[in-house]
Design goal:
seven-stranded antiparallel β-sheet, alpha+beta, about 25% helix, 14 strands
Length: about 400
């Protein structure tokens, strides 16, 4: 069986070094608001960005992959034991898909032959991911779901069949596994091994699954596959894939959040779309940024009706239902800081701003994080240097005001 792969993916919100960019603070205060021109924003830009600057032909696959992020099942919604996110990412090329171990690397030729367009990947487990210990050496319960887009239903069906056949052929010990309620699903396991792999085509999309169980109970694993498909198929039925010849026209900033998000460097720079560093997550895709703990913060997110998220390096911007919800989320975050964090001073003059410092382990560098809100928008900024993070927070506030 080829499914001995490590199911870890690049996590959302990867930290990058913020580069300084020159900019004057623009804008005029409206009644009841501060004059943002008086804020200490350092050398951070406060001018809305031209998001379409530097657009590349390769953007389309990333943007379609981000749309698919709104159509993928969250494993914890099916299995409440899966409380730890092991990562999520867009897989915009066959090579990236194989290199990320989302699909067994022996299947790169299959992905290329059937002209895979893009994909989306999520994995969750019942314990925190440990890079030092392969999951297969533990009794971890893991579910990984990968959506792969192909140019048509026939191509997807053929790809699902061939992905399974190639993976199956890796070991002479592999045996097929029927999935309850899904006669068209392809699945296999190696007797005595506590993992199962499966593929299932639905329209133009192939659902590829990898599950690990605490014990080699094939009936339990087959039922888990069926439960994931029970939840995944309705989401795919609600999703409309973009026609292959229109993918290149997909908007980079469908809800206008990226232009409002603090960007390192000057406002007129050419910006590269990257699902891990700079991208918009519209609609249900924004749920990938929903906090899972503490429960009070998750509840504030749910109450707040977040309907879109944008991520720009060390800045994440949320659009809430209304102004009060954006404020409430920040207040809740400040009230529910973990024992590893403590409040620190927020930027002067920025109303309702909160900042905290967190040290992940003794001897490690501390990370400062600030939350600011303006009307229905809320944003986190972070970095290792407190004064610089306060300037980022002030600049993000000014940018929101200037984008209104």
């Amino acid at each position: 069986m080829a499914h001995q792969r490590t199911p870890v993916i690049t996590a959302l919100g990867a930290v990058a070094v913020l580069l300084a960019g020159c900019s004057a603070v623009t804008g005029t205060a409206t009644p009841g608001e501060i004059d943002v021109r008086t804020l200490d924003v350092g050398r951070y830009t406060t001018t809305p960005a031209d998001i379409d600057s530097g657009r590349k032909p390769t953007d389309g696959a990333i943007l379609e992959g981000l749309r698919m992020g709104g159509a993928i099942v969250f494993p914890h919604d099916v299995d409440a034991e899966l409380t730890h996110n092991w990562g999520t990412d867009v897989l915009d090329t066959p090579r990236r898909t194989a290199d990320a171990s989302a699909i067994s690397n022996v299947n790169l030729p299959v992905l290329e032959r059937h002209r895979m367009i893009t994909g989306f990947d999520i994995a969750e487990g019942n314990r925190a991911f440990d890079a030092k210990t392969p999951a297969i050496e533990t009794d971890a319960r893991v579910t990984r779901v990968v959506l792969l887009r192909f140019p048509g239903a026939a191509a997807a069906e053929a790809a699902a069949r061939d992905l399974e056949a190639t993976d199956f052929a890796v070991s002479p010990d592999n045996q097929p596994v029927p999935i309850p309620g899904y006669a068209a699903a392809h699945a296999h396991w190696r007797p005595g091994v506590k993992t199962i792999g499966a593929t299932f085509a639905h329209g133009e999309i192939v659902v590829s699954l990898f599950l690990q169980h605490p014990s080699p109970d094939i009936d339990a694993m087959a039922r888990r596959v069926a439960a994931i498909l029970d939840a995944q198929v309705p989401l795919l039925e609600q999703f409309t894939p973009t026609a292959p010849d229109r993918i290149g026209e997909l908007p980079r900033d469908p809800d206008g959040l990226l232009r409002r998000t603090l960007i390192p460097g000057p406002a007129n720079q050419q910006i590269a779309i990257s699902s891990r560093e700079f991208a918009a997550w519209p609609g249900r895709a924004g749920l990938h940024y929903r906090p899972s703990e503490p429960a009070e913060l998750a509840a504030a997110w749910d109450r707040g009706g977040v309907d879109s998220v944008a991520n720009s390096y060390t800045t994440t911007l949320f659009r809430f239902r209304d102004d009060a919800a954006a404020t409430d989320f920040g207040d809740t975050w400040q009230r529910t800081l973990s024992s590893a964090a403590h409040p620190v001073s927020a930027p002067e003059q920025v109303p309702g701003a909160h900042c905290a410092e967190r040290r992940s382990a003794p001897g490690t560098a501390a990370l400062t994080r600030c939350y600011v809100s303006y009307r229905r928008y809320g944003a986190f900024v972070s970095g290792p240097e407190p004064a610089g993070v306060r300037q980022q927070a002030a600049a993000q506030y000014a940018l929101l005001a200037n984008s209104a």
